[in-house]
Amino acid sequence: MPKKIRLGILGGGGDSLIGVLHRVAAYINDNYEIVAAVFSPLHQDSLDFAKQIDLPVNRVYSDFETLIAEELKLPQEERIQVCSVQTPNFLHFPMAKKLLENGFHVICEKPMTMTYEEAKMLQEAHRQSGKVFALTHTYTGYPMARQMREMIKNGELGRIHKVDARYYQGWINPIIHDEAKRASVWRLDPKKAGISSCMGDIGVHAFNMLEFTTGLKVRSLLCDFNYMYDDNPMDVDGTVLVRMDKHVKGVIRASQVATGEENGLAIRIYGEKGGFVWEQENPNFLYYFTEGQPLQVYKPGHPYNSELSLDGTKLPPGHPEGIFDAMANIYLGAAKAIRGEVYDAGEFPTMEDGVRGMHFIESTVHSHQQGNVWIDLD
Length: 378
Ligand SMILES: NC(=O)c1ccc[n+]([C@@H]2O[C@H](COP(=O)([O-])OP(=O)(O)OC[C@H]3O[C@@H](n4cnc5c(N)ncnc54)[C@H](O)[C@@H]3O)[C@@H](O)[C@H]2O)c1
What we know:
It is built from 13 helices and 14 strands.
């Protein structure tokens, strides 16, 4: 039985949204052990949180540079092998780059960096390091998202006609109309979030899901944003027309002011033989339309599913698995790569997905700013 992989954590403290998801996901398949961390910019807060979750404090450091320096002093068989970056966006690039340059594998939150330029620099650092880099576009870890990918790959929809990825949230509605409140949120601060709020935070998930499920790349786009207030520099709503490989056309719709919506990510893909509808808030139901036949509903864990989908299911059918399990599947794929085991390309999003995501985000901003013009992606 191989030993557990030694995991470090940056960000994801007790006050964070995403920290608990990563910590639970890392433990779900028994592959990782958290041994070191910087949970907060304040050392005392990091130490307090470590005590709260029973993590020994001797490897809870004041900042990420100290974590790297001190871990390198430890014998190889003790030091962290991989570090998970769960901080606000502006810290992903400096943290991930330094980790890779010092020989650590990286699991990183999205959006990968602040700019496309940074993304390409990180890609180069990754290439030189030869280490594993996994990007946590969590939704690709759902068994039914994986099933869509495999069935489309097998030609079950035939030629694709139309793609529609929607991610609607409403949480910025109670914030955006109050000047003081909107100044207090890091996702609306370009210095901390990057040049886009809505497309950078959630539109990029929709973009990633379209490329993940269809296997096609977005080649050009046209975007229209809504900023709501003149003094707000960050989009809070946007609609993007996309043209993909093989003349496939479609739309990405994202909003943080869709009042009442929670995490309304929905993927619709239609082809000549049939179509798929999948919704993140009911992730265990994949609706499969076929020309002239009754609607079919695919569910996880049944032998009719693909190997990639079944690999992401742990319990017999009918025991709902959710977002923790989806993230755990990404950690599982990364663990296989770290151990040098065979894994499927669909098991975790990579550096290439991160670079494409940053190109997408920047292109939506440029398209809007230049008067809603078409922009080509590489
Ligand atoms: N994959 C997903 O579906 C998903 C969902 C939510 C958030 N995210 C991403 O996760 C990241 C964090 O988002 P969040 O909502 O948890 O943010 P958050 O503001 O809730 O938490 C950020 C955490 O980082 C810590 N932190 C800040 N500066 C730090 C530093 N210098 N060193 C160490 N820790 C530091 C804070 O103390 C806090 O614990 C963002 O990049 C976001 O885009 C991804």
